[in-house]
């Protein structure tokens, strides 16, 4: 089901931060309408570090503690470096080791021939068809069973000769049921019991019939074995993907249990289809109905107002205003509640936000130069180093116009612009969009960003309805609300019900603008749902974990030409 390519960290030198392909997968789907689809993609990880920004953000009373913690981390890192250097390893070797570990946990294609890694595992070879198996096994199967049935009629010398020849011709990877035919009672008296009543048959006729019978029986056993092995590999895949820190999106218990071999032997139809269907069914469950978006918008406003409502202890913040009355120029007098460097006082009794305040420079390294943010901005802005990396991934040769569909306070839009893209920044919240514009000014890139205060769904519909209004867009970046900081409470994040608006609808709408999509999501988002989006996009995909100082913080899923495929030339800057 999965394999890894030959080269190691191919693009590593190409991105600003070390990047590693953790594994490669290919999944066959049989959808509920019976149609087939195939998705190929990669699991990857970006190793981003921002210790300096984190260290600078700590609260004074925590300073000593923070220094010690960071020092510990740094010591541990340098210790590891010293240890691995002593072993002759380089930093690349360390990533290589991690990749190798990932490689080891992911199931491999049988054709994958990594030097020195191929182990002979009995019964583990995956033949492409029964015919392929029969080609390598027919001599052993027909002759050994002939010996089982008619050996008593041969002299000892011939018997021994045939037995030896059979052992020589035994396939390297026989299926489990064929491991030891001499001892397997199922393969004794197969022909004898059926043919003996036919009086007067010649040995040639009996032999021909014997071969037919053994072929049929072997085919049934072969399919039973394949089904069992697909189930086992799927279970392996699920648990190994979990071990890499992803949320597969379905449980091992959802896979069918091993079937009753006795009953199955009555069918001579390949069973592999059935098991695939069951697995794919788990992938291809229909998402909520078409109206779910409207519900979500309502939910979203509910949860937004919830999550943004100032806590009792907070200073009074202005009540919502009519968008038509919004001024897009920031007024430091009337809107001082937005000034990020003053947030310590503003959110003193709001632990949810003070947590972010004490990481403030990792959000915006230039925070003290006039950055502004509202409450939702604090917990949803993309940490600067991650946003920088995403921009590095997205803004390459052929990407010059990026739509940031959920701009928020501008964490990503600013980095796309700094990287040289022209950005169309959309957000339906006028206050947050104002923050984004002011923040872009702080970073000197406001002139490279068009700000549109609107619902992304309306913008997309308008562009789709009138092509003359639609700009030429190279890529769409999506970072919608995840329903507030509680998104990690559930074991797995559901794209459809967790995002507001519905994360699947968002993707559908984005596809109308560009096939090149980067989707910024919780680290516990169901892989199965992300894969389903790739079917819609008819594209490859890459699920990249952002490891920030060794903690997997978020994921970014790339579709279309943004997904890892081969070395992409870096931007000429
Ligand atoms: P977090 O909730 O701070 O997780 O979010 P963390 O750091 O694992 O929490 P901890 O309690 O384990 O320390 C991590 C990052 O995800 C934030 O810095 C944001 O960049 C992003 N993020 C979080 N939320 C709730 C949202 C959201 O609703 N929308 C978007 N686009 N990003 C979010
Ligand atoms: N990446 C941003 C954070 C985005 S938070 C940053 O780094 O700052 C998600 C944003 O989506 C919020 O600002 C919210 O107002 C906006 N949003 C929610 N629904 C929207 C919609 N339908 N259309 C446009 N923006 C929307």
Automatic annotation (TrEMBL):
According to the UniProt entry, which residue ranges have a biased composition of type Low complexity?
300-313
Q: Which GO terms describe its molecular function?
A: RNA cap trimethylguanosine synthase activity
Concerning Pfam families, the annotation shows:
Methyltransf_15
Q: Which GO terms describe its biological process?
A: 7-methylguanosine cap hypermethylation
Keywords attached to this Swiss-Prot or TrEMBL record, sorted alphabetically, are: Cytoplasm, Methyltransferase, Nucleus, Phosphoprotein, S-adenosyl-L-methionine, Transcription, Transcription regulation, Transferase
The yes or no answer to whether the keyword tRNA-binding is present is: no
Extract one GO cellular component term from the record.
Cajal body
Locations listed in the record? Cytoplasm; Nucleus, Cajal body; Nucleus, Nucleolus
Name the chemical reaction catalysed here: a 5'-end (N(7)-methyl 5'-triphosphoguanosine)-ribonucleoside in snoRNA + S-adenosyl-L-methionine = a 5'-end (N(2),N(7)-dimethyl 5'-triphosphoguanosine)-ribonucleoside in snoRNA + S-adenosyl-L-homocysteine + H(+); a 5'-end (N(2),N(7)-dimethyl 5'-triphosphoguanosine)-ribonucleoside in snoRNA + S-adenosyl-L-methionine = a 5'-end (N(2),N(2),N(7)-trimethyl 5'-triphosphoguanosine)-ribonucleoside in snoRNA + S-adenosyl-L-homocysteine + H(+); a 5'-end (N(2),N(7)-dimethyl 5'-triphosphoguanosine)-ribonucleoside in snRNA + S-adenosyl-L-methionine = a 5'-end (N(2),N(2),N(7)-trimethyl 5'-triphosphoguanosine)-ribonucleoside in snRNA + S-adenosyl-L-homocysteine + H(+); a 5'-end (N(7)-methyl 5'-triphosphoguanosine)-ribonucleoside in snRNA + S-adenosyl-L-methionine = a 5'-end (N(2),N(7)-dimethyl 5'-triphosphoguanosine)-ribonucleoside in snRNA + S-adenosyl-L-homocysteine + H(+)
Region (Disordered): which ranges? 294-326
Role: Catalyzes the 2 serial methylation steps for the conversion of the 7-monomethylguanosine (m(7)G) caps of snRNAs and snoRNAs to a 2,2,7-trimethylguanosine (m(2,2,7)G) cap structure. The enzyme is specific for guanine, and N7 methylation must precede N2 methylation. Hypermethylation of the m7G cap of U snRNAs leads to their concentration in nuclear foci, their colocalization with coilin and the formation of canonical Cajal bodies (CBs). Plays a role in transcriptional regulation.
Q: Which family does it belong to?
A: Belongs to the methyltransferase superfamily. Trimethylguanosine synthase family.
Description of how the protein assembles with itself and partners: May form homooligomers. Interacts with CREBBP/CBP, EED/WAIT1, EP300/P300, NCOA6/PRIP, PPARBP/PBP and SMN.
What's the protein name? Trimethylguanosine synthase
Q: Which organism is it from?
A: Caenorhabditis briggsae
């Amino acid at each position: 089901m999965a394999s890894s390519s030959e080269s190691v960290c191919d693009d590593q030198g190409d991105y600003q931060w070390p990047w590693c392909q953790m594994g490669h997968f290919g999944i066959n789907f049989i959808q509920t309408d019976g149609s087939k689809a195939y998705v190929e993609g990669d699991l990857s990880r970006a190793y981003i570090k921002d210790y300096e920004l984190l260290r600078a953000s700590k609260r004074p009373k925590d300073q000593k503690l923070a220094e010690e913690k960071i020092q510990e981390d740094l010591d541990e890192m340098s210790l590891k470096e010293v240890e691995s250097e002593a072993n002759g390893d380089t930093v690349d070797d360390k990533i290589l080791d991690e990749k190798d570990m990932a490689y080891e946990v992911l199931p491999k294609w049988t054709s994958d021939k990594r030097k020195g890694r191929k182990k002979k595992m009995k019964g583990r070879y995956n033949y492409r068809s029964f015919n392929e198996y029969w080609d390598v096994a027919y001599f052993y199967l027909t002759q050994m069973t002939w010996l089982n049935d008619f050996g008593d009629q041969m002299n000892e010398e011939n018997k021994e000769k045939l037995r030896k020849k059979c052992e020589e011709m035994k396939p390297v990877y026989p299926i489990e049921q064929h491991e030891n035919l001499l001892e397997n009672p199922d393969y004794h008296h197969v022909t004898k019991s059926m043919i003996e009543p036919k009086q007067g048959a010649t040995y040639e006729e009996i032999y021909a019939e014997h071969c037919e019978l053994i072929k049929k029986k072997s085919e049934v056993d072969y399919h039973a074995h394949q089904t069992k092995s697909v189930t086992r590999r799927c279970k392996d895949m699920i648990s190994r993907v979990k071990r890499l820190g992803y949320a597969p999106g379905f449980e091992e218990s959802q896979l069918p249990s091993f079937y009753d071999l006795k009953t199955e032997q009555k069918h001579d139809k390949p069973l592999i289809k059935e098991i695939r269907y069951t697995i794919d069914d788990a992938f291809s469950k229909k998402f909520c109905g078409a109206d779910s978006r409207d519900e979500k918008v309502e939910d979203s406003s509910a949860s937004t107002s919830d999550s943004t409502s100032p806590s009792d202890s907070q200073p009074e913040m202005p009540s919502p205003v009519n968008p038509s009355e919004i001024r897009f120029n920031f007024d430091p007098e009337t809107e001082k509640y937005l000034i990020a460097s003053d947030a310590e006082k503003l959110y003193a009794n709001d632990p949810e936000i003070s947590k972010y305040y004490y990481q403030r420079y990792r959000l915006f390294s230039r925070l003290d130069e006039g950055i502004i943010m509202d409450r939702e901005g604090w917990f949803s802005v993309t940490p600067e180093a991650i946003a920088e990396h995403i921009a590095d991934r997205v803004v390459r040769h052929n990407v010059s116009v990026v739509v940031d569909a959920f701009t928020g306070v501008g964490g990503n839009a600013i980095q796309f612009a700094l990287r040289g893209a022209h950005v169309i920044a959309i957000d339906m919240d006028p206050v947050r969009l104002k923050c984004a514009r002011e923040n872009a000014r702080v970073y000197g890139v406001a002139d490279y960003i068009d700000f549109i205060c609107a619902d992304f769904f309306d913008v997309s519909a308008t562009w789709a309805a009138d092509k003359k209004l639609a700009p030429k867009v190279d890529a769409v970046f999506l970072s919608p609300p995840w329903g507030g900081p509680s998104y990690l409470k559930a074991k797995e994040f559901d794209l459809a019900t967790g995002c507001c608006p519905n994360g699947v609808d968002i993707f559908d709408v984005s596809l109308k603008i560009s096939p090149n999509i980067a989707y910024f999501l919780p680290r516990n988002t169901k892989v199965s749902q992300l894969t389903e989006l790739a079917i819609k996009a008819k594209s490859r995909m890459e699920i990249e974990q952002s490891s920030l100082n060794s903690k997997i913080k978020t994921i970014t899923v790339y579709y279309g030409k943004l997904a890892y495929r081969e070395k992409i030339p870096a931007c000429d800057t």
